[in-house]
Design goal:
The structure holds three protein chains of three kinds. Chain A is an alpha+beta fold. In chain A, a hairpin with a 5-residue loop joins strand 2 and strand 3. Chain A is elongated. The mean pLDDT of chain A is 96. By secondary structure, chain B is an alpha/beta fold. Chain B folds into three domains: 215 residues, Rossmann fold (3-Layer(aba) Sandwich); 85 residues, Ubiquitin-like (UB roll); 99 residues, NADH-ubiquinone oxidoreductase 51kDa subunit, iron-sulphur binding domain (de novo design (two linked rop proteins), Up-down Bundle), CATH 1.20.1440.230. Helix content of chain B is 44%, strand content 11%. The radius of gyration of chain B is 22 Å and the shape is globular. The model of chain B has no long low-confidence stretch (mean pLDDT 96). Helices cover 26% and strands 17% of the residues of chain C. Chain C contains 26 helices and 35 strands. In chain C, helix 10 crosses helix 19. The radius of gyration of chain C is 28 Å and the shape is globular. The chains are: A alpha+beta, B alpha/beta, C alpha/beta. Chains B and C meet through helix 14, helix 15 and helix 16 of B and strand 4, helix 2 and helix 15 of C. The structure holds flavin mononucleotide (FMN), iron/sulfur cluster and FE2/S2 (inorganic) cluster. FE2/S2 (inorganic) cluster binds next to loops of chain C.
Chain lengths: 154, 429, 917
């Protein structure tokens, strides 16, 4: 079931789009904002709300990398692995995060605090290597101390 | 007069100018004047006189694109303007700079563009990873609406406009303008067939103009200061300024607004401060990941404008350079680029979907010391086979640009990996 | 006709097609995957690359996808161009980077389009040295097997399933080289056209699960042109058989009917013919009352003795039996003693609808006509459940009219990728009027009401269309406004159609449709069409033979006026009130049953003559538009398993030795059925001296089939009824000239026929093209007529208009007025057809038998959702689960078709309902 505030948030977007089903991505994001990820049930609920099939919604959801169809940790670390950050050492940062957090791309720490994901160019090439934790951008990070910014995200 | 129109009010690290500050600096004057004195066709005409070319990468004449929108009584009444703020081209961070630094400038540009084409609804298609832009754009839109620059009957002109912010759910292909339209419609962001082009049938099947952030930001200035002024800003045949950027192992990575046609040397040496100590420049990808390498030996004094760069065998693209130094492995860098492209391919057409991953794996094998003699040939063939016209959209040809040029300029690097069966670069990363 | 140039040769091509279409039609071997004649061009696979030149001066040209290039006058291209050739081979090479090398064990192997295209491009050795991607496969239900690793991402499946067929439980998931086609979670594919995925998929991702269970290599099948016997539409099929059993059904293209697609009922119902309980041996009741197997001669002797001793013989035919079977039965019993087998109410409706079609104002609509219609009113029928393929056609009709905006932009309609983005899911006027929700509601404007109100709507539409239909007296404003709106969209259309059917058994509804048809003729002229849905595969044929309803004959048994009953392929428990049937059967001294299914009538019979099914008989069926069509046996029949008419022939003094004989006799007795004989060539037809083969040219099992029993190769079985041979030898189905293999399309010398008539083509295969995609070589024009014309013969000439059919609107339905709730039918696409329900995989898809009531009616009768309700009609009763259905009009109860134990419904059958204890 979509919660009231989810429903309200989705409905608020309705007038901005010509067709109800065009809200599909918005709705997925709203649900994700509320719950951190999008479960199968949420997909079905969104589908019903928008008058679509669950498979149609999921087909859209699985296309986009910023929709999480798996449960994530409390904070998602997006480590930029595009070219400028690569030149500036994002591979070493990834290595460092693996050492300190014990997780690699696509994994979540056992305490459910962090999920680590690669992300395409964060548009922070002048601050490479860069990473985002949730909405917070960090860079340049010292690859050898890549875990430093994480302290701010309990 | 101002030689840096786009960035004059931008002070990184500080909040952007609010409506008051923006208006104090002459902001929204162009909107008032245009809605009062100009017909939409006049707006198009001024932009045409200025010769503004799109800053989204392809350099298409902006006024010409606008003029493709069907007008008149039998044209669809609804039309849309979409600002392409999906900036995800690796190495590119100019639109973020503009949106974070001066959101009103973009809004003003959008109002003028929408007026020119007769759109009453406009969207800003913003990538998800730019939350600060989202926050500032939202605030600015609210301010503009409160001040009557947006909404019904703007300044008594009878022209209505609403601007909506759509925040993407990711994927680089959303930047391709027709994939973007699908994303806005809540579908999988697979590019559309062209024709019909968006100005004729775009968002929800209606005439739609898609323009880059930087392109739209120029419009108020052109209307305020005129076409001649704009042309005078550039050094070569293309008018205006350009946001140039540099990243990689330079002293001062960053973004600068400079006259269109500023040379590569000025950008790298004067602005970016040259290479970091101990690093030598080997190659430059001039405008985001999908442009061809240029090399310092040949191109240091190349004016960075659309035509000159094209003549040199590359594209100006987004104008944000990625610098390859002598300690970074060329093959590794290309592998990184192709990894990006293989991950971001939409999966619609065969050559891109299945060809790029093969390239990426081959590069990875070469990099890991597992390369074979015939791999070079395979890479060469792929750059040809994934060229323009062979894939459904321009994504794959873009992906091939750095590879084909690297094979031309740095073939030795590839060969050494293969003959030595290892990566010859030891401290690149 | 535009002239185009391919590799320097000029060709004329049809107007408005793309270059790939044109090249294939000309016989060129140009590989492709994502293009499909019915699904259009989307440019995804990039397999159809050619070099295109701007004009004759352009020597450089550029690589272009042929499926995206309009073949307009002056188009120039090269298929042979080295770079285009290299590119096409590369596309295969890319597709192969992840494709498993499992051809030897793949279900698709041997008729795999990917296999053919791979060979065609010449790609053969692997260079990709990295691991392949793997996917998990899904359970998709009883029909479809899923092997996702074979996928080449041509997107055809979702374009068919979602876009074309309106399915919502399927799609493309993920991105880049991890696009997955399936469902978001394992589960049965709900859409009743899912089986087409088998043919739409160019490789082995979606394969036939029913075939898999009794797998045989495709080239080892013996196939025959067949006609689907599971609804009145008569879709054309291929029945493939081996070792005495049917193994699968494939679509057989017919441009006016099924085109490229079948419904799942038609594709998977065939397993009824393989049932172990199917009668395969004659049975005769012996003195102590037990049924004993008998050889044919003994059974026939018993039967003719019984007939000779009879005090009176009555015979009940069947709307699911062939024309020949019914005719033979009628000959046996004589006029007045033969019934076409439909219950009185249904028979009356069928007779009226046949009359409307034959003598009424508008020509009968083929499915193709309906697909092309730009405004449709479906009045009082639910094609989605009674004539599924028609619902698919109507779905396309709904997508027609918005395409006019695509035309305006100068975008060709085949350019599907662009057309869809332009029309944005818009649909044209499709109006449906039925008693409750249907599966067309998502693309139509549904009206829901009782049959009388549906009829009133129809009359009001006719009135508003203009012409001479008077206004409907006392009509309420909402209904009238609705009628007006429907009338306006029909009038604005260039190719409008009205569709009706016999399901409701309602005379007023049919007359209302006739009134609309007449008004359409006046308003829109000759392009208007009348679509009709009948109960079963040969309802029209049986109706044309005429005769009393079975009730009458059963009464005469009961009354002792006759004592012997012959039943032809008819489960009377589905048609006649249980009490009457029981009395009649008890009264009968002898019951002779001919059937291919173990029905209750067969169980009761004293003599059982096992009838050949569609798979082992030849015969003729007349479809909903009055098209007589011939089906041929895929299996040789045995002495003990004969066509019904053959059994019956032996019991009369008729001298019919072959199908041709009986058709000749039929034509003489029933001149209006004479064209039935022309539905396909007679037995003596030969193509250049040769019969048509049933087996593919790669048939491998001929000499080894019986090797465990004998080393001698048996003589192929005879087929006295058709020019088809049980053999791989015979006339090549088509000369299949391939333009770029050097063999030019030379006109054949006078008198030499080049191609088998379409009605005799038993499978699609030509050199280089082993999959169903070789169909293009069997068409006059791609998506047009079959080579030499489509099979079948139309019985109804152009109608003349008939005022005698004028009816008048009934009074509005008054929910409270009747003795209980008015019964209306709720057909189920899978099980309402008698034989289909006997196919195990189809039965698995059966909807649970429920009765539906409006929540308020339910409340009034004390019935809660999902509880048992006792339904009583004329003293008979049955218990059904109740479902509250707010879509149902008030005062109605929707019952499954049929409900065992309940009498068949007429248009005024009321039921009393109460909670079952
Ligand atoms: C793969 C691909 C990605 C693109 N990404 C962007 C982008 O992020 N931002 C952008 O403005 N244009 C992008 N473009 C270019 C757009 O398609 C379009 O040409 C541009 O937005 C037009 O704006 P302009 O005329 O103002 O340059 C991309 C093109 C391709 C082929
Ligand atoms: S080239 Fe093809 S697969 Fe690649 S992004 Fe474009 S359409 Fe998608
Ligand atoms: S058939 Fe032309 S691109 Fe697929």
């Amino acid at each position: 079931m979509l919660s009231d505030s989810e429903r309200k948030a989705i409905e608020a977007e309705l007038p901005l789009y010509e067709r109800r089903r065009s809200l599909c991505i918005e709705a997925l994001k709203i649900v994700q904002e509320h719950r951190g990820w999008v479960s199968d049930e949420a997909v079905a609920d969104i589908a019903e709300f928008l008058g679509m099939g669950a498979d149609e919604v999921d087909s859209v959801a699985t296309f986009y990398n910023r929709i999480h169809r798996h449960e994530t940790g409390r904070h998602v670390i997006y480590l930029c692995d595009s070219v400028s950050c690569w030149i500036m050492g994002c591979d070493r940062a990834r290595e460092r995060l693996r050492e300190t957090l014990g997780i690699d791309f696509g994994e979540t720490t056992p305490d459910g605090r962090f999920t680590l994901l690669p992300i395409a160019c964060l548009g922070a090439c002048d601050r490479a290597p860069a990473l985002m934790v949730g909405d917070e951008l960090y860079g340049p990070v010292d690859p050898a101390k890549a875990e430093e910014p994480l302290g701010k995200h309990p | 007069m101002n030689r840096r129109p786009l960035t004059a009010l931008i002070h990184p690290g500080e909040p952007p100018p609010d409506l008051k500050a923006y208006e104090a600096a002459g902001g929204y004057a162009a909107v008032r004047a245009a809605l009062r004195d100009l017909q939409p066709a006049d707006v198009i005409d001024r932009v045409k006189q200025a010769g503004l070319r799109g800053r989204g990468g392809a350099g298409f004449q902006t006024a010409m694109k606008w003029s493709f929108v069907p007008q008149g009584d039998d044209a669809p009444r609804r039309k849309y303007l979409v600002c392409n703020a999906d900036e995800m081209e690796p190495g590119t961070f100019k639109d973020r700079y503009l949106m974070e630094g001066n959101p009103h400038q973009l809004i003003e540009g959008m109002i003028l563009a929408a007026y020119a084409i007769g759109a009453e609804v406009a969207y800003i298609f913003l990538r998800d990873e730019y939350p600060l832009c989202a926050k500032r754009l939202r605030a600015a839109v609210a301010e503009a609406r409160a001040a009557g620059h947006l909404g019904k009957d703007i300044h008594g002109s009878g022209f209505h406009l609403d601007i909506h912010l759509h925040i993407s759910a990711g994927r680089y292909i959303c930047g391709e303008e027709t994939a973007l339209l699908n994303a806005l419609e809540g579908k999988r962001a697979v590019p559309r067939a062209k024709p019909p082009f968006p100005p004729v049938a775009g968002l929800w099947g209606k005439p739609t103009i898609v323009n880059n952030v930087e392109t739209l930001c120029f419009v108020p200035h052109i209307l305020r200061h005129g076409a001649d002024w704009f042309r005078g800003l550039g050094k070569g045949s293309d008018g205006g300024t350009k946001l140039y950027g540099a990243s990689g192992r330079v002293r001062r990575p960053g973004i600068w607004e400079l006259p269109m046609g500023t040379t590569m040397r000025e950008i790298i040496e004067d602005r970016a401060g040259g290479m970091l100590d101990g690093y030598r420049l080997r190659g430059v990808i001039p405008g985001g990941a999908s442009t061809d390498f240029l090399v310092p030996e040949e191109h240091m004094d190349l004016p960075m404008d659309f035509e000159s760069v094209q003549k040199a065998g590359s594209r100006l693209g987004t104008g944000t350079m990625i610098l390859l130094d002598d300690k970074t492995c060329t093959v590794g860098m290309l592998r990184n680029l192709q990894l990006f492209f293989s991950r971001e391919s939409c999966g619609w057409c065969t050559p891109c979907r299945d060809g790029i991953p093969w390239i990426e794996k081959t590069l990875a094998a070469i990099e890991a010391g597992d390369g074979r003699e015939e791999d070079i040939d395979l890479l060469h063939t792929h750059t040809r086979l994934l060229g323009p016209g062979r894939t459904f959209c321009a994504f794959a040809p873009g992906a091939m640009a750095p590879l084909q040029s690297a094979l031309r300029y740095f073939e030795d690097d590839f060969r050494r990996h293969i003959t030595e069966q290892r990566c010859p670069y030891t401290n690149g990363r | 006709m535009p002239t185009i140039h391919i590799d320097g040769t000029a060709h004329s091509v049809p107007e408005g097609v793309n270059l790939l279409h044109a090249a294939l039609q000309l016989g060129y071997d140009l590989p492709y995957f994502c293009w499909h004649p019915a699904l259009g061009s989307v440019g995804a696979c990039r397999q159809c690359a050619v070099r295109q030149y701007r004009d004759e001066k352009d020597e450089k040209g550029q690589i272009a996808m042929a499926c995206m290039v309009p073949a307009v006058d002056g188009t120039r291209c090269s298929i042979a161009d080295a770079e285009a050739t290299e590119f096409r081979a590369s596309v295969i090479e890319w597709l192969m980077t992840n494709h498993p090398h499992d051809c030897p064990v793949c279900d698709e192997g041997g008729e795999c389009h990917l296999q053919d295209m791979t060979v065609m491009t010449g790609h053969c050795s692997r260079r990709h040295r990295f691991p392949k991607r793997t996917f998990r496969n899904q359970f998709l239900g009883p029909f479809i097997n899923h092997e996702m690793n074979r996928c080449i991402q041509c997107y055809r499946c979702t374009r068919f399933y979602n876009d074309y067929a309106g399915g919502t439980d399927f799609g493309a998931f993920g991105a880049h080289n991890h696009v997955y086609f399936g469902r978001s979670t394992d589960g049965v594919l709900e859409n009743e056209f899912s089986g087409n995925l088998i043919e739409v998929c160019p490789t082995g991702v979606f394969t036939d699960k029913t075939l898999k269970r009794h797998y045989t290599r495709k080239w080892d099948l013996e196939s025959a042109p067949s006609v689907c016997a599971h609804c009145s539409l008569g879709c054309n099929t291929f029945a493939g058989a081996r070792y005495g059993a049917v193994r699968r059904i494939l679509n057989r293209y017919h441009s006016a009917i099924n085109g490229y697609f079948l419904c799942d009922r038609g594709r998977f119902a065939y397993e009824h013919a393989n049932r172990p309980d199917r009668p395969r041996q004659p049975l005769v009741r012996d003195k102590d009352g037990t049924m004993r197997p008998a050889v044919a001669a003994v059974a026939l002797k018993a039967a003719s003795d019984a007939l000779a001793a009879a005090k009176g013989v009555v015979a009940v035919g069947s709307p699911r039996a062939s024309l020949e079977g019914n005719y033979a039965l009628r000959t046996l019993a004589g006029n007045g003693r033969y019934s076409p087998g439909m219950a009185a109410a249904e028979a009356a409706a069928a007779a009226l609808l046949v009359e409307i079609l034959r003598d009424g104002p508008l020509p009968a609509a083929s499915l193709h006509d309906l697909e092309q219609a730009d405004a449709v009113l479906v009045l009082g029928e639910d094609p989605a459940d009674t004539a599924p393929r028609m619902a698919l056609a109507l779905r396309q009709a709904a997508r027609q009219q918005p395409l006019e905006s695509v035309d305006k932009l100068g975008i060709p309609r085949w350019y599907d990728r662009a057309a869809r983005d332009i029309i944005q899911g818009a649909t044209g006027p499709l109006h449906t009027a039925w008693t409750q929700a249907t599966r067309l509601d998502d693309i139509s404007r549904p009206f829901r009401g009782a049959p009388a109100d549906i009829a009133r709507l129809g009359f009001a539409v006719a009135h508003h269309l203009g012409g001479d239909t008077p206004p409907v007296a006392g009509i309420d404003d909402a209904l009238d406004a609705r009628a007006k709106e429907i009338a306006e969209s029909l009038r604005a259309a260039r190719r409008p159609a009205v569709v009706t059917g016999t399901s409701l058994h309602s005379r007023p509804v049919l007359l209302a449709a006739a009134a609309v048809a007449r008004a359409l003729l006046q308003a829109n002229g000759e392009n208007a069409r009348l679509g009709a849905v009948f109960g079963e595969a040969n309802t029209v044929g049986a109706t044309l033979l005429g005769g009393p309803p079975p009730e009458e004959l059963l009464e005469s048994l009961d009354a002792g006026k006759a004592d012997t009953l012959v039943v032809l392929e008819n489960d009377l428990t589905r048609r006649v009130a249980p009490a009457l049937l029981q009395r009649a059967l008890e009264a009968a001294r002898c019951v002779i049953a001919l059937d291919c299914a173990a029905t209750p009538v067969v169980e009761r019979a004293d003599i059982v003559l096992p009838a050949a099914s569609f798979a082992d008989a030849a015969g003729t069926l007349v479809n909903h538009e009055g098209r007589a069509q011939r089906f041929f046996p895929a299996l040789p029949h045995t002495d003990d398993l004969r066509e019904s008419w053959r059994w019956l022939a032996a019991l009369t003094d008729a001298t019919w030795d072959s199908l041709d004989d009986i058709l000749l006799a039929l034509a003489k007795d029933f001149p209006h059925l004479a064209p039935a004989a022309e539905a396909a060539p007679g037995e003596d037809f030969r193509l250049n001296g040769r019969k048509a083969p049933r087996s593919s040219r790669r048939y491998s099992g001929r000499t080894s089939q019986l090797a465990d029993r004998s080393l001698h190769e048996p003589r192929p079985p005879d087929d006295p009824d058709s020019p088809l041979a049980f053999s791989m030898e015979g006339a090549a189905p088509t000369c299949g000239s391939t333009a770029n293999s050097g063999e030019k399309n030379v006109p054949s010398p006078a008198g030499v026929q080049k191609h088998l008539p379409s009605s005799l083509v038993s499978h699609y295969q030509t050199p280089g093209w082993n999959s169903v995609q070789s169909l293009t070589r069997f068409q006059e024009e791609i998506a047009g007529l079959c080579r030499g014309g489509d099979p079948g013969a139309l019985l109804f000439a152009a109608p003349g208009g008939n005022g005698a059919l004028a009816g008048s609107p009934p009074r509005p339905f008054n929910p409270g007025a009747g003795p209980g709730l008015l019964t209306v039918p709720a057909h189920d696409v899978f099980t309402s057809d008698e034989l289909a329900a006997l196919s195990p995989p189809v039965a698995e898809r059966a909807a649970p038998p429920v009765c539906r009531l409006h929540p308020e009616d339910a409340a009034a009768h004390g019935i809660a959702d999902d509880t048992d309700a006792r339904i009583e009609i004329d003293g008979a009763s049955a218990v059904l689960r109740a479902r509250l259905d707010p879509s149902l009009a008030r005062g109605l109860i929707a019952l499954p078709v049929p409900v065992p134990g309940l009498p068949p419904r007429a248009d005024d059958t009321y039921a009393t309902v109460r909670p079952a204890p």
